[in-house]
Amino acid sequence: MKCFVEPSDEVIMPTCSFVGAANAVVDRGARVVFCDVDKLTLNATAKAIEEKISPATKAVCILHFGGVPCELDEIVELCAAKNITLIEDSATAVSSFYKGKACGTFGQAGTWSFDAMKILVCGDGGMIYVKDADKFKKLRQNIYLGLVSQSGFTNSVDSKWWEFQIDTFGRRSIMNDISSAIGLVQLEKLPKFIAKRKHVAELYDSLLANVDWLKLPPPLKDYQKSSYYMYHVQTKNPEDRDRLASYLRGKNIYTTFRYYPLHWVNLYGQKFEHLPNAEAAALCTLCLPIHQSLADGKLNLSAGK
To answer: CB–CB of 208/216 below 8 Å?
Structure first.
C-alpha cells in the first residue's frame, strides 16, 4: 500500500475480505472503508463501491472471492472516472481470468498469495504486480530494506562494493530461494491443480443440485474463469447453516465461513455500519472442503450421499 496510499487517505474494500488487507491500510495511517458485496458471489460491485466514495478516497482494493472474478469492466470504469487507484487482492485467484485477461492485472497493482493454504504453495510468500514503472522501482526498494543495490555484484561502487545507500526505510518482504524453487515446480503443476478443483466443484454441483434447502454458487459467466479456491453453499436461515457445520464437523469434515465481515470487528470502529448483503451472507454461508487431493469418496460423504 505504501506506494499508493498516504496517511489521511481512504481505501474502500469489501467487508468480506482477509484481515491482512485491511490491516495494511491501517498500518499506513490511512482509513479503511468497508463496502457491501453481492449476496451470492460475495464479490464487491461497482454500485456498492460507488456508495462509499468520498473526496478522501484514494484507492479501491477488491477481492476476487473464492477465485471468481469480480465484474471488472464496471469497477475499472468507475475507478478511472473518479481517478481512484484500483488494487486487486488476487490471493485466491492465482489462475482466474476475466475476458481472457488474468485477474490481478486490471488495476494499478495486484497481489497473489502462495502461503500454505493457497493453490500454488511455496510454504509462504507471494507476488506483486505494479503497472507503473516508477512505483514498481519504489516498491522493489520498499520490500528489500530500502536498498538501492541488491548485492555486492550489483553495487556501482567499484573499489568498496560493501558500501550502500538506502532510499527509504523499507523492510525485508522478499521470498527466499528455496520457496521460489518450490514455487517454480508448483507452477508447472498448476493446470492439473485447477482441473481437479474444478472437478470437485462440478461434483458438488451435481450431488447437491436437488437439496432444496441449499443455494449453490451462481454459475460462472462465459467470460469468467475461476481458480476454484473456495466452494460455498448458502442455507435459507442461520440455524440450518450452523447445524450443517456442526453435523459435518461430527463427521470429521471441516467447514468454515470466509471471510468474516470486517465491519463487525470492533477494532476497525465500524460496528454500527449496516451492510445488509454481507451480513445476510455471513449468517447463512458455509465453505465446503475443496482441494486438489480430495477424493471423490470423500466428496460423497461431504454431500451426505
So the answer is: yes
57 three-state secondary structure: strand
Can you list the domains of the chain with their CATH numbers? 10-182 (3.40.640.10), 191-302 (3.90.1150.10)
- Which residue from 99, 98, 19, 97 is spatially nearest to 61, judged by alpha carbons? 19
Q: How confident is the model at residue 87 (pLDDT cuts 50, 70, 90)?
A: very high
Residues 6+ apart with CB under 8 A from 193: 119, 120, 292
By CB neighbour count within 10 A (0-12 exposed, 13-18 middle, 19+ buried), where does 50 fall?
middle
Q: Which residues contact 101 (CB under 8 A, 6 or more apart)?
A: none
Where is 128: in which H helix or E strand? Answer: strand 126-130
pLDDT in tens, 10-46: 999 999 999 999 999 999 999 999 999 999 999 999 9
Using CA atoms, how far residue 246 sits from 215, 221, 250, in Å, is 18, 33, 6
Could you tell me which of 291, 287, 302, 296 has the C-alpha nearest to residue 235?
287
Could you tell me which residue, 203 or 157, shows the higher pLDDT? Answer: 203
> What is the DSSP-derived secondary structure letter of residue 262?
G
Contact, 29 vs 10, CB < 8 A?
Answer: no
Name the CA dihedral angle for 41, 44, 45, 50, rounded to a multiple of 10 degrees.
160
Report the predicted TM-score, pTM, of the whole model to 2 decimal places.
0.90
Least reliable range by pLDDT among 168-177, 259-268, 279-288: 168-177
CA gap 94, 62 in Å, rounded: 15
Residue bearing cell 487517505: 9
- Residue 38 to residues 47, 85, 123, 278, 301: CA-CA distances in angstroms? 10, 22, 32, 7, 30
